[in-house]
Amino acid sequence: MSSVKEINVVVKRPRPNTLRILILIPTPYRAAMSSLFLHMAYSYLNNYEHIYAERAWIEGNYYIVSAETSTPLRKFDVVLFSLSYELDYVSFVKILIESGLNPFSKSRGLSDPLIVVGGLAPTSNPEPIAELADVIVIGDAENFLQKIVEIGKEEKKHIIDYLDGIEGIYIPKFQKERIKKSTTLDLNTAFHPVAEIIPKNVEPIFGRGYLIEATRGCPHLCSFCLEGHVNLPFRWRSLKILRKLIRKGVKVCEVNKVILYSLSLFDHPQANDILQYLVNEGLEASIPSIRPSTLTDERIELIARLGQRT
């Protein structure tokens, strides 16, 4: 979408020794820009001079080029696919084929990008794409991202060997035994983006605002909710950390709205204090997921004062 105006886009001049990574969310732009993983990986990876992370999504067809430099997918060293739903597997395969890559891992070579897949769907069951992906991330992404930045361009051909045996990393051609899920237990010390990419003339699915992950997982374990089960245990960021991130985030992102990422915000022990803080700061807020059983008159009033109507 060349007509989209964005802030906080990272611009680098790739050098021969730059490890080039494409973060690909196989959905249209408005949905892709509501992916917290996209913002987290983009911000984290681009903190390193030897890495240039770019973004891509589906827009009209399955031939993918990056948003930042219009580089075709097959020219990257590593491609990170975030797949939230099983139907994303279809898009995943179409993208590989349209990009001129063999969809089967065993038929790709060292001159092709390393295809890394993660997200809710492959974490719950990686086997449907085990013959297609080179690497599958099981669980939270932080551990993988920390490891990939340790790899230089000249070591690209050894990336799989380097990742082998790391918690949460499933390499189908090496491993058939059970893989332990990677879990980031302490969200207070985990990386969270401050400078997120904000479209100025397009409204993302959750609205134009600073995305912040207040909690991860859910204690209720509803039988219909895959995410609650896959993202166990339930964790949260403290009010102190959230206030610090929000103060910086809304300023850098030039927004007056906060989008609270949480499966069940009101199971956060300081939920009311979080909302009151936002009210006191004169901010608007959106809570995409609310359990009716956790609402009280006080919480409904706070939500209304923050501008949410539905």
Overview of this structure, please?
By secondary structure, this protein is α/β, with parallel strands linked by helices. The chain has 2 domains: 165 residues, Rossmann fold, CATH 3.40.50; 100 residues, Transcription Regulator spoIIAA (2-Layer Sandwich), CATH 3.30.750.210. Helices cover 26% and strands 16% of the residues. Strands 3-2-4-5-6-7 form a 6-stranded mixed sheet. α3 links the parallel β4 and β5. α9 runs parallel beside α10. The two termini are 29 Å apart. 37% of the residues are buried. The mean pLDDT is 93.
Task: Set down the secondary structure blueprint.
Layout lengths: L5 E2 L11 E7 L3 H4 L3 H10 L5 E7 L20 E5 L5 H11 L15 E5 L1 H5 L10 E3 L4 H7 L10 H5 L5 E2 L27 E2 L10 E4 L1 E2 L9 H5 L4 E2 L2 H14 L4 E5 L9 H10 L3 E3 L10 H9 L5
Parallel strand pairs: 2-3, 2-4, 4-5, 5-6, 9-12, 12-13
Antiparallel strand pairs: 1-8, 6-7, 10-11
Helix pairs in contact: 9-10
Overall, the morphology is globular
| Percentage beta strand | 15-25%
How many domains make up the 3D coordinates? 2
Write down the Rg. Answer: 19 Å
Sheet with the most strands: spatial strand order: 3-2-4-5-6-7
The run of helices and strands is EEHHEEHEHEHHEEEEHEHEHEH
Tally of alpha and pi helices: 10
What class do helices, strands and sheet pairing give?
alpha/beta
CATH topology of the largest domain: Rossmann fold
The end-to-end span amounts to 29 Å
Average pLDDT for all residues: 93
Which stretches are low in confidence, meaning pLDDT under 50 for 5 or more residues running? none
CATH architecture annotation of the largest domain: 3-Layer(aba) Sandwich
Multimerization status = single chain
